[in-house]
Specification:
Blueprint: E1 5-7, E2 15-27, E3 31-49, E4 68-90, E5 93-106, E6 130-131, E7 138-147, H1 161-166, E8 170-178, E9 182-183, H2 191-194, E10 205-206, E11 227-228, E12 252-253, E13 257-270, E14 274-283, E15 291-294, E16 306-309, E17 314-322
Parallel strand pairs: 1-4
Antiparallel strand pairs: 2-3, 3-4, 4-5, 5-6, 5-7, 7-8, 8-13, 9-12, 10-11, 13-14, 14-17, 15-16
Length: 323
């Protein structure tokens, strides 16, 4: 009986250390400003390796079956600066906005980007260090609540039929503006890779061309000439004859995130503790295409193209009767 998976006999459970510092100040007109810093350090995180192969793809132990080796020697570090502004509900309006500038680095992201990835070179784990698969450098989020100025104790239509129809409506919403998640330029289906019991662990070689495009499209989100598959052409052969690519992990930035959601709701009070709640809500109000994934496999026929999108605009109406 053979076994193609092994766990380090000295495997230990990982842990995360968190620390933060916040300074808050209350300004006139119900405005609160908060500036903070958050840090996190992951220790003894999961790492998967394929130890039974040499740099040229041959087996280190002839006749032995290739296997995946799981250990707890990965680590991570996160630094994040945050600035948030919040205005309490006053005059029928409440606002909140938060900007986060952060960077997360690790050598084996266990969340995001498809989960744990097998290390490319078991003998050089330092080359696995790069941006975390969930790293977003910039992220700006906000929300608001606005009570429409109609009805009792409001500026317009304080009484009468108009007050009953238009009064009590509340407009709310939220938005997110964020930079893209990172992706790794890879090679799939390599015979040397598959024969070692893994697939997709090999990274591409960098050609020296710039990665970023000033005007990306869905058919070429980044400069596809920036990478090549090791050994695929005379100009893409490693001098030492190894099959391992020299591109770093997560060096291609994916599409940015832009979302805007809104809702309009009102509660009609009925005698004897009865009420009718109406809510109209819309997600992705402006129907902006949310590109979610790109193909970074250099030997794929759709290499460089956008391969996934998020939900488009959706409208819904909800009615709830409480009694």
């Amino acid at each position: 009986m053979t076994n193609n998976f092994a766990v380090d006999k000295n495997y230990r459970l990982g842990y995360v250390q968190l620390w933060n510092l916040n300074v808050q100040r209350e300004l006139p007109h119900g405005v609160i400003v908060n500036a903070g810093y958050n840090g996190a350090k992951g220790t003894r995180l999961d790492m998967e390796r394929a130890p039974n192969r040499n740099p040229d793809g041959t087996l280190r132990i002839a006749g032995a079956q290739p296997f995946i080796f799981e250990s707890s020697e990965a680590d991570s570090i996160l630094h994040a600066g945050t600035v948030s502004v919040r205005k309490r509900l006053q005059g029928g309006l409440a606002l909140s906005g938060t900007y986060v500038y952060s960077k997360s680095i690790d050598n084996a992201s266990s969340i995001g980007g498809g989960g744990v990835v097998v290390a490319q070179n078991d003998q050089d784990l330092a080359t696995e260090r790069g941006r975390s698969s969930f790293d977003q450098r910039h992220k700006f989020t906000g929300n608001w609540i606005y009570e429409l100025p109609f009805g009792a104790n409001k500026r317009f239509l304080p009484n009468g039929a108009g007050a009953h129809i238009l009064g009590g409506w509340q407009w709310s919403g939220d938005f997110t503006l964020a930079s893209g998640l990172p992706f790794t330029p890879r090679v799939l289906g390599s015979f040397r890779d598959v024969s070692s019991g893994v697939n997709g662990t090999l990274r591409a070689n960098v050609t020296g061309a710039p990665i970023h495009l000033s005007d990306p499209t869905t058919f070429e989100w980044f400069n596809t000439a920036a990478f090549c598959a090791p050994g695929s052409s005379p100009g893409c052969v490693n001098p030492d004859g190894t099959l391992f690519g020299d591109a770093g992990r997560n060096i291609v930035e994916g599409p940015r995130q832009v979302t805007l959601n809104m809702a309009l709701n009102k509660t009609f009070e009925i005698k004897d503790f009865r009420a009718l709640e109406l809510r109209v809500q819309a997600s992705n109000v402006f129907n902006i295409a949310q590109f979610a994934a790109i193909n970074t496999v250099v030997n794929s026929p759709i290499y460089g193209q956008v391969t996934g999108t998020g939900s488009m605009r959706r409208l819904s109406m909800v009615a709830r009767f409480r009694f």
